Amino acid sequence: MTALNTYLERKDVSISAHRYGIDAMSAMAQGLFASLLIGTILATAGSQLHIDLLVQAGDFAKSAAGAAMAVSIGYALHAPQLVLFSLIAVGTAANALAGAGGPLAVYLITIVACELGKLVSKETKVDIIVTPAVTILAGIILSVLIAPSIGAAASSLGNLIIWATEQRPFLMGIVVSVVVGIALTLPISSAAICAALGLTGLAGGAAVAGCCAQMMGFAVMSFRENGIGGLFAQGLGTSMLQMPNIIRNPRTWFPPIIASAITGPIATCVFRMQMNGPAVSSGMGTCGLVGQIGVYTGWLNEIAAGTRTAITAFDWTGLLMICFILPSVIAWAVCALERKAGWIGENDLKLPE
């Protein structure tokens, strides 16, 4: 057993929840952003501005999603070059064969293929043949055998959440908004989770609400400590910056969580806000305004499909209220009460320099 542990350590194969559940998943979200998300943004901008080059660039970027996710995961797992480059084929196959559940299949299959490739990397005199062969064959075999099932399972779970939100929009609006919002602030990827489950529709709208509550909530309630820089870093960047403060004082997390519990059902029951753009956008919140661009893209898709006639003032009002105004006001008010009660002290929300 000691020899095996030594070998795994030498090959940098660390079987841990942190490496697979946090490092790999967070990296996958970056791969999604660098392909599917930016591609959607470019294609949407190109179609609105009638610039064919932007549309083509966006389409090419979206088509590379599987490869981009796999390479991102491999990078997070410290894959050697030959393994990393071989993962392009693995990600492409897993994403294509898993259908709507592509991101989850890419995530699981890439981890296995990458680690197997690392185990044989530089162990033979014909490394340039053995390493890519093992990596690609492992990934392709797994993709053929289990990717469709993984995709079907992920789609079924996502469809169940979407169906439940349609049936019980108030209750599920709270649940989805709070859970996905918490995931966004934790050192895991809410975007990757939403992408893996294909979370769209009303459930996607609730997810957007929860993410925005965390980001805008922390940005506004910590303005006293962090100023304009902190406002943009958290409001357009990530609320994950507050994790050290949350660990020191968990009560600092109450305001954005309460805000998400309120804005989630308002999104589903009052404004009926839906995410019918890319599912990954559901877990992005106000990060680069990706969540809002996703909702807008969904509106355009509905108009193109004939299920929506136009984008109304009520739609825009709902987007502004759910994503910016309500979470900011609610989180600030709850935080003020906590400050008055002594639950949040001076500099408890100060971001590290």
Please give a handful of descriptors for the protein shown.
2 domains, 0% strand, 15 helices, 353 residues, globular, 77% helix
Give an overview of the whole structure.
By secondary structure, this protein is mainly α. The chain has two domains: 2-153, no CATH class; 168-341, no CATH class. Helix content is 77%, strand content 0%. It has 15 helices and no strands. Helix 6 runs antiparallel to helix 7 and helix 6 (102-120) packs across helix 9 (190-197). The mean pLDDT is 92.
SSE diagram, text form:
Blueprint: H1 2-10, H2 17-49, H3 52-63, H4 65-76, H5 81-98, H6 102-120, H7 127-167, H8 169-185, H9 190-197, H10 201-221, H11 223-235, H12 243-248, H13 254-270, H14 290-305, H15 313-341
Helix pairs in contact: 2-3, 2-4, 2-14, 4-5, 4-6, 5-6, 5-7, 6-7, 6-9, 7-8, 7-10, 8-9, 8-10, 8-13, 10-11, 10-13, 10-15, 13-15
What is the multimeric organization of the chains shown?
single chain
Number of strands: 0
Structural class: mainly alpha
Count of the separate structural domains: 2
**Mean residue pLDDT:** 92
What is the distance, rounded to the nearest whole angstrom, between the alpha carbons of the first and last residues?
44 Å
**Cα-atom radius of gyration:** 21 Å
Shape: globular
| Major β-sheet annotation | none
Low-confidence stretches: none
Tell me the strand percentage band: under 5%
The DSSP helix count reads 15
What is the helix fraction of residues, given as a range?
Answer: over 70%
The secondary-structure element order is: HHHHHHHHHHHHHHH
